Amino acid sequence: MRECKLLSRNLLLLVSEVIFLSRKLGNIFVVNLAIADLVVAIYPYPLVLTSVFRNGWNLGYFHCQISGFFMGLSVIGSIFNITGIAINRYCYICHSLKYDKLYSDKNSLCYVILIWILTFVAILPNLFVGSLQYDPRIYSCTFAQSVSSTYTIAVVFFHFMLPISIVTFCYLRIWILVIQVRRRVKPDNKPKLKPHDFRNFVTMFVVFVLFAVCWAPLNFIGLAVAVNPDTIIPRIPEWLFVSSYYMAYFNSCLNAIIYGLLNQNFRREYKRIIVTICTAKVFVQESSNDAADKMKSKPSPLVTNNNQVKVDSV
């Protein structure tokens, strides 16, 4: 019972640390991106491991559809959140006077809800087209590129090319402003970009670049398959498709590493979370040891009764 209370207390501390981190950075979209990356770990990945161990999918049609749905939810949610972060950084750096009005607490919450609504709307057509199927090459239920050429082209355009274009525009505008600020030599021209703002921008820019690099091969393969499936599908080596697929989903593991390497605030908060977890773990161990010592030091009822009998007999 005590360990359950300590576990719940530790969980609350961890959640409070995450909330504190999101408020401190002033950007709820970063936490939202982390949630999108974690979606695949909740349901799809355990099923993929099961299919790998069993060398096939034995969980039925329903679980296949749900697993593919959550995978798509994570992927589309990630790219939409990266787009939202890029727009947020663009407004913060290039239109700083309007930023507080555009990204108030209420508006930011509405933007987050809008991102997830668009994500659900974007993934729902897969259930009607029948494009979520089990692929034995990757041991998972995922989007089948050869089901509908028109739908595959629409997916590549709206879920990858259009968001990448928006993000590229936002970051190009930010880089232009950065170059202009650094070229100013007059003392009366104060730079509009603070050092910590620049570091945060670099962090999210690296996140975007790695996302584009990791997901580009799989999307280009899908686009080629959609244009001419009968000719392209036989020519794509299995190792190329499998490599591009796992490289794309490996991207979900990279964001936390990037935050830790490039952002001092994240490194500091990571340390605080680790210290909190370790402290709670040590406290649980000490409490367990104290309870065991008390049980050992407590005299048994038999010994107590024997001693009492001896005293009475004397």
TrEMBL record:
It is found in: Cell membrane. Residues 9-259 form the G-protein coupled receptors family 1 profile domain. It holds the Pfam family 7tm_1. GO terms for molecular function: melatonin binding; melatonin receptor activity. It is a multi-pass membrane protein. One of its GO terms (biological process) is negative regulation of D-glucose import. GO terms for cellular component: plasma membrane. High affinity receptor for melatonin. The activity of this receptor is mediated by pertussis toxin sensitive G proteins that inhibits adenylate cyclase activity. Belongs to the G-protein coupled receptor 1 family. This is Melatonin receptor type 1A. The lineage of its organism: Eukaryota, Metazoa, Chordata, Craniata, Vertebrata.
